[in-house]
Design a protein that fits this description.
single chain, alpha+beta, 6-stranded mixed β-sheet, 6 helices, globular, hydrolase
Length: 183
């Protein structure tokens, strides 16, 4: 049986104009959008409820209309009940910003352009498997996920690279259900 070796993405620097310019060009982001994602994900960490692990995570979703929706991880003494920052932001977007019955949802104006995740560790941490699947429900596999560390580093991968051979709504004959991130 063949095995696949995964090569980690390069660690880029938030203090390097060349790294940021290359990221923005590759993923069709403006410098302002990149900076807003970085700032918002870092600020979202301040809302983390993580008394058990002390592992703060903030997430920021960027819509095609430049709206940023944030979330932070919320731990529970029963660890499986913990909600990650990425899922908090997605749920907030779906239930508060654009509820399913709203005109915006029906007309598919909620389209995510990028996701940022920020932690206090280095190198950057990627979304967990459950979050990757939740992102898959609402975003294109082409969406860039920018992972910021606790220093000045970051890495970027598309969802398809983090969740290869993914299972999504189209596998159940529901291609238009929940898919709001197609570029």
């Amino acid at each position: 049986m063949a095995t696949q070796t995964t090569i980690p993405p390069p660690i880029l620097s938030t203090t390097s104009p060349a790294d940021i310019a290359s990221t923005c060009e590759t993923f069709a982001l403006s410098r302002e959008e990149f900076d807003n994602l970085h700032r918002s994900a870092k600020e979202a960490k301040n809302h983390s409820y993580s008394p058990y692990s002390k592992f703060r995570v903030g997430a920021a979703l960027l819509t095609q209309t430049s709206l940023i929706i944030t979330g932070a991880n919320v731990e529970n003494a029963s660890y499986p009940v913990t909600t990650c920052a990425e899922r908090t932001a997605l749920c907030k977007a779906v239930t508060t910003v654009y509820p399913p019955n709203s005109i915006s949802w029906a007309s598919k104006t909620l389209k995510f352009k990028a996701i940022a995740v920020a932690t206090d560790i280095s190198p950057p941490a990627s979304p967990c498997g459950m979050c990757r699947q939740a992102i898959r429900e609402f975003c294109s596999v082409e969406i860039p996920i920018i992972m910021f560390d606790g220093e000045n580093g970051y890495a970027v991968l598309r969802l398809k690279d983090l969740l290869p051979l993914s299972f999504g709504p189209e596998a159940l004959g529901k291609e238009d259900l929940g898919r709001r991130g197609d570029s």
